[in-house]
Amino acid sequence: MRIVLFACALAFTAAHAGVAASPVKATPSARAAIEMATAAWNKAIVANDRPALERMMTEDFVLTSGDMTQWVPRGAWLDNLGKMRIASYQARVTDVRVYGQIAIAEVRGSWDMTMGSERRTTAFHLADTWVLRDGRWQVMRRYMIR
Questions:
Q1: Which of these, 69, 42, 65, 48, lies nearest to 139 by C-alpha position?
Q2: β 102-115/84-99 pair status
Q3: Which of 16, 39, 42, 68 has the lowest tally of Cβ within 10 angstroms?
Q4: Average pLDDT for 85-111
Q5: Which of 137, 68, 134, 64 is nearest to 98 (CA)?
Q6: In angstroms, rounded to a whole number, what is the distance separating the alpha carbons of residues 24 and 144?
């Protein structure tokens, strides 16, 4: 299942970005760069730091559900995050694949948050697609695996 999701994420992203590349295991430096970018991303999520998140996202960022039935564009994702109170948020990169200037990071974690009157404590499994632009990594897509 994980390989299929990575393949789908890569095919969609590569087609979108006009990139054709073969997957390679991330070098230690590429993995470290993605882990650092993910750490900054996580910190901005917890702090609800919209300007930092906007800098880390491509203009065409989209969150999609694992079955591809839900698409949340960048503006709506940021607005939704702004309505949340996050009590705890933990995420770790479990795998990184690099495809030229595109990287896919598999992320596992959990969070405890409240939005309106609804409280959620959930474990999650994501695939974040990062693109290297102007010397910095930005999140292009976030796929909810579960």
A1: 42
A2: antiparallel
A3: 68
A4: 93
A5: 137
A6: 23
Q: Quick one: tokens of 67?
A: 């079955």
Whole-number pLDDT of residue 66: 77
- pTM comes to 0.79
In this predicted structure, the answer to whether residue 11 has a pLDDT above a threshold of 50 is no
Identify the structural domains of the chain with CATH numbers, from first to last. 2-144 (3.10.450.50)
Q: List the structure tokens of 49.
A: 């730091």
Dihedral over Cα of 53, 146, 63, 11: its sign = positive
Question: Which residue is listed with tokens 């990575």?
Answer: 6
CA–CA separation, 71 and 64 (whole Å): 5
State how far the Cα of 130 lies from the Cα of 106, in Å rounded to an integer. Answer: 11
Cα within 13 Å of Cα(115), Cβ side:
10
**Beta strands 57-64; 71-73: pairing state:** antiparallel
Give residue 36's pLDDT: 92
Write out pLDDT tens, residues 21-74: 555 556 778 888 998 999 999 999 999 999 999 999 999 999 998 777 889 999
